Each structure stands twice: as C-alpha cells, then as structure tokens.
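Risk mitigation, structural track. In case the binding assays with magnesium ion fail to produce interpretable data, a predicted complex structure has been prepared as a fallback.
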Amino acid sequence: MNAINSEIDAVGIVLAAGRGSRMRSRVPKPLHTLAGRELIRYPIATLHECGIRRVVVVSSPDNRDAIAGILGDQVTYAIQTEPEGTADAVECGIRALPGVSSLVVVLAADTPLVRPESILGLMESHRAGSKRRMTILSAPGAFGPDLGHIKRTDRHYPGGLGDLVAIQEAADRDEPDNGLAEVNTGVYCFDGSWLEKSVKMAPASASGERYLTALASMAVDAGDAVEAAPIALADEAMGVNDREQLAAAGAVIRDRINRSWMSAGVTLVDPATTYIDVDVAIGQDTVLQPNTMLTGGTKIGEECEIGPNTGIRDSAIGDRCRIVASTIEEARVEDDVEIGPYSHLRPAAWIEAGVHLGNYVEVKNSRVGSGTAAGHFCYLGDADIGAGVNIGAGTITCNYDGVDKHQTVIGSSAFIGSDTMLIAPVTVGEGAATGAGAVVTRDVPEGRRAVGVPARLLPK
Ligand code: UD1
Ligand code: MG
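Fallback model:
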C-alpha cells in the first residue's frame, strides 16, 4: 500500500519487550511470522503508511538484537530491562523522546491486524476532542476474552454511550466475558507532554505489573479528557498472545490478501486453500488453482496458471507460465515456461523463456536456455545449458565427486540421449549428441556424437 499521508507530526512507540510466555516458544513473540512477515514488521509498516516516520521500538535485552536484525535503522530502540508492564515499557520508550510535544501513537507488537486507516481515524478523533489527553482505539468485543474492557458510566446520552471511566483488564474481571464488551485494541493516541508526565505515575496492579491502561482512570480522576474511538472492523483488535491466536490472525490476514488479489484481477479458484504471503506480487489474469502457496518475495507475471498443489518461494516467474504440482525455491523463470507435474526448482535455477520441464525434473544452480526441453525425470545441477537443447529422460549431471561440485556445460541445439550420465566437469559442444545410456567422462566437441560406457566419440 502507498503512504496514505505524507509525513505527519506524530511519533510512534511500539511495545515489544513482553515475555510472550503464552506462546511457549524459544523464539521471541515479535519474531513469529504471519503471512511471511515477522509480527514486529506489521506495526512499523502501519505507522509508516500513516506517515509516522519517527518510531521507537521498546525491546527487551534478550530480543533487541534479533529485532534490530529485522528492522535495522528504520526505527530507534529503547530497552526495557525487566518486563514490568506496558506502562513501564512506554516510560522506557518516551525516555528516548525527551520533551516530546507532538501526538504519540502507541501500538503493541502483537496486534498485526490494525490498519493504517484506523490509526489515522484514531488521531483524527483525538484531535477533534477538546483538550484530549488520551484516545483509545476500541473494538466490539468479538475477540475480547483476554483483552481489556472499556468501562463506562450507565448514563446514556441519546444515541450515545456513557462516559468512559476506566479500562478493566481480564485478570481483574469477575464476570465472564459475554462477547458484548467494548474492548481495548492496545492502540492509543496520547498528548505527548501529558503522557511523558503521567506514565511515570501509573501504579502497580495486583499482578505487580504497571499497566498502561491505568492511565485511563487516572485521567478521568484528574478531570482530563479521555475517550475511546471505535475501530471499523472488529477483527483488527485480534491480539497474538498464543499459537491459537497466531493461527486465527493468520486466517484473517490471508483472507484480506486473497480478496485484494481477486479485486486486482487474479483468479483464485479456491481461496480457502490458497496461501499468499503479504509481500508477494501477482500479475493480472493469472489463475491460482487450489493448494497453491506463494511465499516470501515471490513475483508472478500475468496470465499464468499456477497449481494445483504448487509451492513457490522467493522466486520470480514471468508471464504466461504454467506450473503444476511443483516446488520452486529462489529461482527465476522467464516467460512462457511449462513446469511439472512434480518438478523441483532449487536456489539459483534460471529457466529461460519457452522452456519445457516435465515431470520429476530437478534443477539447481543452473541456467536452462530458451526453448530447451527436459520432459522426464532428470537432475540438472551446476549446469549451463544453451538454447533449444533436448534433454532425454533420466539425464543426470553428476556434479559431485564426493568432495567438490563441478560444472556441466551443454551447448545450444545439443541432443542428450536418454539416461546420459554427464560426469562433471564436462562440456558437450553446440549441436553435439550423446547416445542413450552414455556415461560422458570427457568433453564432446561441437557437432560430434559420443556413445557407450565410458562414452567414446563416433567418427565424423
Ligand atoms: C494488553 C492491554 C489490554 C489490551 C490488549 C490488546 C495492558 C495492561 N493490557 O493486554 O487492555 O486489550 O493488550 O491486545 O496494557 N510489553 C512490553 N513490556 C511489558 C509488558 C508488555 O513491552 O512489560 C509489550 C508486549 O511485548 C506486547 C504488548 O506490550 O507487545 C502488550 O502486552 P501483552 O502482555 O500482550 O498484553 P495483553 O495481555 O495482550
Ligand atoms: Mg497481547
């Protein structure tokens, strides 16, 4: 998505220093992935899309390096030495922004579904309020059992809600959640100077942690203005605290991604079994058959047919390609290529235009020149293959001698007979041919034929 706004006068604080203990993982929670992106990248991308460029990430001493490895210098870092609660985390963040007078938007690293539109709406609502100190992005309670609830007075204005009095955390509730509450999404907009002064005063809760949510009742008690602004879509509030919520958030994001590709002119025959990572790009009139996974930074051209049962990761595919029941990883495929079923392109496979790779063809770190055909089960590794070559069934580039890998070179228009073993390093010249079952241990010059085991050249 393009930036909705150019740079605006607000800063962001992203909280990522919690223990994340409910994940039961060795991997820090902000590093778990959703649709191919680490959780921590979602709030950063969202803030950037809102035009908020100055962002502080509050991390723990344990996850700081891992997070910095992902975000680099897009953000600045603050360390919270002990996870003493969200108020303490914000206090750490604001120390990196001394004397901040602009608006401060606070987001958690574990609510990846919040959209930029919602944050812009939150800021607008904050600015519209008179002397507003704190505005909370709230949502209807569908996903609320472990979220904080917004508490209001019973007094109802005509067509409106009672006055906000507090945010009540799940641990402090007696009554069971009935799914009707107004919940705290964990996204807030603050008046910067008020936040800097007030967050220090947030008291310890019964659990010992200092909750950021306590600032709501503190503001109310002091006569300061605080309000909640409702979010457009309830599922934006989904937090990721455990693996079940990770899967649930994944389903929502997948649905959003699938819909956006369908509206961009891509056919998804069965969206329920189509998995597209957030950073993938797909051209118009491409058809994705069931059980297709496009992951990482994969780019697919126009008018392709992909699947069924195909996985493509971090690869670039040209226009009008047809790929059936195959696996493609870190490969480059040009236009008008046919692959599969059951073929495997491994890293640094480069398939030029018009190539046909049929069933059970494995290609690794090799160029396959335009118009070349390898129709049936073969292994092409560390090879440079020219244009218009015919590669017979069962051909193998024997690239590994047990110690080192070696290159095979096949010139354009060569004919490689079925079951040829090419013992690398070896070169088969342009227009040369090998007989069925040949074991080629020495170079075959241009235009010559080699047959037998070990292969010998036939007279001219
Ligand atoms: C929090 C809110 C809750 C809200 C929910 C929305 C509080 C007390 N509660 O609950 O009202 O409905 O988010 O998802 O704020 N973190 C730190 N340092 C800490 C503790 C937490 O950086 O000491 C970070 C975590 O890494 C996480 C975020 O703050 O990214 C929220 O913490 P978490 O423990 O997930 O709070 P929730 O129980 O989800
Ligand atoms: Mg949470």
